[in-house]
Amino acid sequence: MSNSLQQLPDKLRMDCINGEPGSQKKLYYGFYGFAMGICLRYSKDRDEAVGILNDGFLKVLTRLESFDPSKPFLPWLSRIMTNTAIDHYRSQLRQPITSDVTELEISGEDPEINSKLNYEDLIKIIQTLPPGYRAVFNLFAIDGFSHEEISEQLGISIGTSKSNLFKARQKLRIMLEEQNKITALNSASNGAIIINEQFKSQQDRHIFQAGT
Q1: What is residue 7's DSSP assignment?
Q2: Most CB within 10 Å of its CB: which of 49, 115, 166, 209?
Q3: What CATH number was assigned to the domain covering residues 97-212?
């Protein structure tokens, strides 16, 4: 996103409201990356994310008159995109999970997961989670919602929210361990190739020197 569009310029906002040619496209592409980052977290793949993104921007463009220009634009945009993703989740949910696991106590973010994954890797792994786990993990661990708020947002019990978060973290930890093993094997393999090439190179130089 360009620095000029970190906040929504009032002229651009008014141009969009008044239907000035090209203004809505400018807003869309100006905040595309920020909004897509949110939609990708809540989606199983990029195609689904694009659908959520477009629905979200349609809401943004039709609600600009209600936006308070004295306040930051990005939190407002983020809230619309998140709510649109939640609406999409609800529309896709066929059999809501009703199990209650009130005895689980989940606290804070998982330092192991957060410290070993960069943002892009985390997004890819989150996308593999079942929809319910993915929604709760995003809302709690990344967007900072409480289990009480998640319960209201998704129409599930607080116990189910805690259960889904616990199971999401379990799956993420397993996938992280598998990814680390693959990375370690690749590193070891690359190291062996480098050592072997160095050894062959040394042999070649020795033979060449011996024959001179």
Answers
A1: S
A2: 49
A3: 1.10.10.10
The reported pTM is 0.73
DSSP-based three-state secondary structure for 70: coil
* 75: nearest Cα among 31, 18, 27, 15: 31
**Residue ranges of the alpha helices (H) in 93-211?**
111-116, 119-126, 131-137, 147-154, 158-210
Sequence length of the chain is 212
Q: How far is CA 146 from CA 140, 152, 158, in A?
A: 6, 10, 9
* pLDDT per residue as tens digits for the range 57-69: 999 999 999 999 9
CATH of domain 1-92: 1.10.1740.10
Q: How many CA atoms lie within 13 A of 11 on its CB side?
A: 4
Residue with tokens 């209650």: 100
Angle at Cα 190 formed by Cα 186 and Cα 196, nearest 5°? Answer: 145
